[in-house]
Amino acid sequence: MSDAARNHAEAVEQANTAFYEAMERGDFEEISELWLDDSHGDISCVHPGWPVLTGRGEVLRSYALIMANTDYIQFFLTDVKVSLAGDTALVTCTENILSGGPAEDGADLGPLVGQLVVATNVFRRTADGWRIWSHHGSPVLAETGEEEADENPS
Amino acid sequence: MSDAARNHAEAVEQANTAFYEAMERGDFEEISELWLDDSHGDISCVHPGWPVLTGRGEVLRSYALIMANTDYIQFFLTDVKVSLAGDTALVTCTENILSGGPAEDGADLGPLVGQLVVATNVFRRTADGWRIWSHHGSPVLAETGEEEADENPS
């Protein structure tokens, strides 16, 4: 890997980390900035179990709703892999999520829930740095992967 | 959209269709050709409910296993959207899947199962045409999308 490619890979991984840290802080402004703007074409987003959302309107509205319903969320990222092609980068990672909804009946925090999600995040390099073109997150339902091919035909 | 961009978008949609038709035919050679080769860096693949598979070895092995366990599969693609950036293209689509496993007890075909899956497919343009860099498919668990933000924190 060349020095330039290594620098790009580091910058992409930083942008990927910044994305999850912004979610942890509930920082909607930062999330909004990290997604590619309209002048670069349509962004798309799939939250685990959701249909596809397309365009900044739908995507950012989903983050506003998720943040409104999440009092606490923490991402422990593992298996982060970056693949580069010019001004586009593909990141895959495992999101080990711990989250809690709004408290009920005067409690400090709702019950904490653990979730195992894998994500494919596609970034594009712009004058302002690497920006998210696509995020696709999905629940990991099988532990074993390849051995369970017969359960998961696509 | 310029003529060149329109031609690219059509070629990408054809490559996307070819990918699903190869799955329907159980054509492993064609699947293998449609995925980007090693000289272009790591490919990645997430089947619905699976962890991330990285590299041609893991990815193609998973298709061989899926095909060995699938006697019948048909994809009805809807909501196909193409977003282009130079030599990279992002396709999102809904895979309405009808599939059947091997027959048991002398029957002609195992029971047919319907599945609703959404996919994000990333393609790169090579000298041989558009090739798959990443496929991420996930089950659609909620019908309503945005209204269920509280259930899906990522």
From TrEMBL, chains A, B:
InterPro entries: NTF2-like_dom_sf, SnoaL-like. Residues 12-140 form the SnoaL-like domain. Gene3D superfamilies: 3.10.450.50. It holds the Pfam family SnoaL_3. This is DUF4440 domain-containing protein. The lineage of its organism: Bacteria, Bacillati, Actinomycetota, Actinomycetes, Kitasatosporales.
